[in-house]
C-alpha cells in the first residue's frame, strides 16, 4: 500500500498536471478560437469585397453597353418619334419594340431592357412586350437621368429595380441628340441583370462560402439547403426587427437547421429590403480547433499517466529512507539499540539517517544491558496489467483457391496476371458479401471467408456453388487457359481477436477448424467443393452430396470424413 506521504506526492503531481493541462487547453482554445473567428471575419470581408467588385464590373459593363446602344443613330431616330406631338403612342411603342427585338436584342446581353421618352413614360419593355405609356419617372435610376445626372463610374450604391417579383441590378443612361449645338434629351435606356440562383452559385464557387440573396422575406437565390434557407429567413427577420441600429457587416453566429453558422449580412444595393448573406458552418471553420483540442486531451491524459509514474518513483526515493528511519525508531523503542541504517544519499534525509545511526550507536553504548526486541514492516505495492480480450465463436469458414494459376501466370506479363487474379477474386468476394459472409483475408490466389449468421453453413455452401458457376462463366468469356477453383468448407468453434505485434495487429480467426478448412481446400480438385460432416449437419437445405473416402490431412491426427457437394 502507498504511504500517506506517497499519496500526497502523487496527488500533488497529478493535480499540478491536470491544472496545467486545463490552463493550457483554455488558453490555446480561446486564442485559437479568437484567431479562427478573426480569420472568418477576414475571409468574409474578402468575399464581401469580391461581391462588390463583381457588382461594379457588372455595372460598368452595363454602362458601356447602354452608352454604345444610345449612340446608334437608328436607336435615336426610333426614340425621337415619341417627341413628335402628332405621333401615335402605340405606333411609337411598336417601332421601339421591334427595333429592340430585331436590332438590339441579339447584340445586348441583358435581362432587363426598358426604353422611356424624355418625360420618363415607358415606350417599350422587352420583358413585357405589351406594356407602354406608364410613367417610370419615379424610379430612382430614371429620375436621376431625367434630372440631368449621368451614371457615376464608381457609385457608392448600386441601383436595384424590383419587377414581377424579380430583382435586377440596373443602370440608366440618357439618349441624347444635338440640335443647334446643344444636347437635347430624347429619352432613357435602362439595362438590368437579374440577381438569382446562378449569381449565388457563381459567388460560392469563387469564395467557397454559401451565399443567399433575399428580397424582403423571399429568397431569390441561395446555395444553402432548403431547411437552412427557411431558418435563415426567420433569423434575419428577427435580427433586423430586433436591432435597427445593428452593424450589418459584422459577423453573426446563430443556429440553422443543420447546425451553427457564421454569417455576414449586408445590403445588396440601394434597396433597404434587399440583402445578401455569406454563410459558413462553424464546424468547418473550427475543425482545426476540434483537432487541436483532441490532441491536447490526448497529451493531457498521457501527461497525467506519466506524472503518476514519475510521482510513484520520485515519492519512493523519498519515503523509502523515511520508512527505514521509522522502522529503526520502532526497533529502538522496543529496546533494540544496535540499529544501523545504510544510506548513500547526500541530501537532508541522508544526513538525518547518519545522525540516526550515531544516535543509535550512542544509545547502544549506554543501554548495553537492554534486550533487543523488534518487528519489521513490509509495504506491498501492486501493479495492474492489461490484457486484450478474445472470444470464441461457432461459425463456418470457406477457403477458395484458384487452380491453374501457375500455368496461367508462367508466360504472361505481371499486369495481365494481376488483372485476371483481381477479376476472379472480385467475383468471389462479391458473392461472399451477397450470402452474408465476410472476407477474412486474401493469401495470394486464395480467399478465406467466414460466415457467422444463424444459417452460416447454408450460406457458405450456397456461396461456394455460385462461385463455381460464376468461375465457369468467366472461363467461357476470355480465358485461353482454364482457371478453376477448389473450395473447402468447415464448421466449428474458432478463436477470434486482435492478434499480431505491438505495432501491427490483425483482427482474425485461428484454431483447428480453420486449419481443417484450409486442408480441405488444398485437397479439393478443380470445380470441387469439399465439406466436413460438421458443416453437413448444420444445414437444413438438401444438397446433392457424395460421401468421399476419409482422408488423412496434414496437421490433422485423425482421418476426416468429408463430403463433396455436387454442382
Distance between the termini: 69 Å
Radius of gyration: 45 Å
What's the CATH topology name of the domain at 391-565? Alpha-Beta Plaits
Q: Helical region count?
A: 14
Low-confidence stretches: 369-387
Number of strands: 20
**Which CATH architecture of the domain at 391-565 is right?**
2-Layer Sandwich
Describe the 3D structure.
The protein has 567 residues and is an alpha+beta fold. Among the domains are: 71-194, PAS domain (Beta-Lactamase); 197-282, Beta-Lactamase; 391-565, Alpha-Beta Plaits, CATH 3.30.70. 46% of the residues lie in helices and 25% in strands. The chain has 14 helices and 20 strands. Helix 2 (73-80) runs antiparallel to helix 3 (89-104), helix 8 (287-333) packs parallel to helix 9 (348-366) and helix 11 (414-434) packs antiparallel against helix 12. The chain is flat. 29% of the residues are buried. Residues 369-387 have low confidence and may be disordered.
Please name the defining characteristics of this protein.
567 residues, alpha+beta, Beta-Lactamase, Alpha-Beta Plaits, eight-stranded mixed beta sheet, five-stranded antiparallel beta sheet, 20 strands, 46% helix, flat
What are the SSEs and their pairings?
Elements: H1 4-70, H2 73-80, H3 89-104, E1 112-117, E2 122-125, H4 140-146, E3 160-163, E4 166-179, E5 182-194, H5 197-207, E6 210-215, E7 218-222, H6 226-242, E8 251-256, E9 259-267, E10 274-281, H7 282-285, H8 287-333, H9 348-366, E11 391-403, H10 405-409, H11 414-434, E12 438-443, E13 446-451, H12 456-478, E14 484-500, E15 505-510, H13 512-523, E16 528-532, H14 533-537, E17 545-547, E18 551-552, E19 559-560, E20 562-565
Parallel strand pairs: 14-16
Antiparallel strand pairs: 1-2, 1-5, 3-4, 4-5, 6-7, 6-10, 8-9, 9-10, 11-13, 11-14, 12-13, 14-15, 16-20, 17-20, 18-19
Helix pairs in contact: 1-8, 2-3, 8-9, 11-12
Amino acid at each position: 500500500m502507498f504511504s500517506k506521504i506517497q499519496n500526497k506526492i502523487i496527488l500533488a503531481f497529478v493535480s499540478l498536471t491536470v491544472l496545467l493541462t486545463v490552463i493550457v487547453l483554455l488558453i490555446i482554445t480561446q486564442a485559437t478560437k479568437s484567431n479562427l473567428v478573426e480569420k472568418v471575419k477576414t475571409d468574409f470581408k474578402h468575399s464581401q469585397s469580391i461581391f462588390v467588385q463583381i457588382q461594379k464590373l457588372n455595372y460598368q459593363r452595363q454602362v458601356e453597353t447602354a452608352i454604345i446602344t444610345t449612340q446608334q443613330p437608328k436607336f435615336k431616330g426610333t426614340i425621337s418619334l415619341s417627341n413628335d406631338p402628332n405621333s401615335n403612342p402605340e405606333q411609337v411603342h411598336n417601332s421601339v419594340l421591334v427595333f429592340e427585338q430585331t436590332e438590339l436584342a441579339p447584340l445586348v446581353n441583358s435581362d432587363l431592357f426598358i426604353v422611356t421618352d424624355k418625360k420618363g413614360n415607358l415606350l417599350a419593355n422587352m420583358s413585357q412586350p405589351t406594356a407602354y405609356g406608364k410613367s417610370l419617372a419615379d424610379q430612382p435610376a430614371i429620375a436621376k437621368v431625367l434630372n440631368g445626372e449621368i451614371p457615376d463610374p464608381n457609385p457608392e450604391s448600386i441601383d436595384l429595380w424590383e419587377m414581377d417579383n424579380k430583382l435586377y441590378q440596373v443602370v440608366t443612361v440618357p439618349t441624347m441628340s444635338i440640335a443647334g449645338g446643344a444636347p437635347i434629351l430624347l429619352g432613357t435606356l435602362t439595362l438590368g441583370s437579374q440577381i438569382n440562383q446562378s449569381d449565388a452559385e457563381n459567388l460560392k464557387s469563387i469564395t467557397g462560402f454559401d451565399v443567399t440573396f433575399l428580397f424582403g422575406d423571399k429568397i431569390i437565390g441561395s446555395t444553402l439547403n432548403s431547411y437552412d434557407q427557411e431558418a435563415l429567413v426567420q433569423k434575419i427577420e428577427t435580427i433586423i426587427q430586433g436591432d435597427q441600429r445593428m452593424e450589418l457587416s459584422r459577423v453573426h453566429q446563430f443556429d440553422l437547421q443543420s447546425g451553427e453558422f457564421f454569417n455576414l449580412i449586408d445590403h445588396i444595393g440601394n434597396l433597404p429590403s434587399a440583402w445578401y448573406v455569406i454563410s459558413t458552418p462553424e464546424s468547418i471553420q473550427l475543425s482545426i480547433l476540434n483537432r487541436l483540442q483532441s490532441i491536447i486531451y490526448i497529451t493531457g491524459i498521457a501527461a497525467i499517466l506519466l506524472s503518476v509514474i514519475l510521482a510513484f518513483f520520485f515519492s519512493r526515493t523519498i519515503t523509502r529512507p523515511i520508512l527505514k528511519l521509522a522502522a529503526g525508531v520502532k526497533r529502538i523503542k522496543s529496546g533494540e539499540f544496535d540499529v544501523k541504517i545504510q544510506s548513500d544519499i547526500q541530501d537532508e534525509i541522508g544526513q538525518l539517517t547518519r545522525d540516526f545511526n550515531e544516535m543509535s550507536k550512542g544509545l547502544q553504548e549506554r543501554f548495553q544491558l537492554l534486550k533487543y526486541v523488534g518487528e519489521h514492516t513490509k509495504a506491498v505495492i501492486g501493479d495492474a496489467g492489461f490484457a486484450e480480450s478474445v472470444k470464441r465463436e461457432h461459425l463456418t469458414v470457406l477457403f477458395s483457391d484458384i487452380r491453374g494459376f501457375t500455368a496461367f501466370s508462367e508466360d504472361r506479363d505481371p499486369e495481365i496476371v494481376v488483372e485476371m487474379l483481381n477479376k476472379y477474386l472480385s467475383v468471389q468476394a462479391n458473392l461472399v458479401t451477397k450470402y452474408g459472409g465476410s472476407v477474412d483475408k486474401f493469401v495470394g490466389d486464395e480467399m478465406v471467408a467466414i460466415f457467422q449468421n444463424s444459417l452460416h453453413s447454408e450460406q457458405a455452401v450456397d456461396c461456394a456453388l455460385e462461385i463455381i458457376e460464376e468461375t465457369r462463366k468467366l472461363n467461357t468469356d476470355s480465358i485461353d487457359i482454364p482457371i478453376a477453383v477448389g473450395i473447402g468448407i468447415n464448421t466449428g468453434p474458432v478463436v477470434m481477436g486482435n492478434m499480431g505485434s505491438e505495432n501491427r495487429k490483425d483482427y482474425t480467426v485461428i484454431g483447428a477448424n480453420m486449419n481443417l478448412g484450409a486442408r480441405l481446400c488444398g485437397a479439393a480438385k478443380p470445380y470441387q467443393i469439399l465439406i466436413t460432416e460438421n458443416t453437413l449437419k448444420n444445414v437444413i437445405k438438401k444438397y446433392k452430396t457424395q460421401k468421399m473416402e476419409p482422408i488423412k490431412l496434414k496437421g490433422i491426427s485423425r482421418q476426416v470424413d468429408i463430403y463433396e457437394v455436387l454442382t
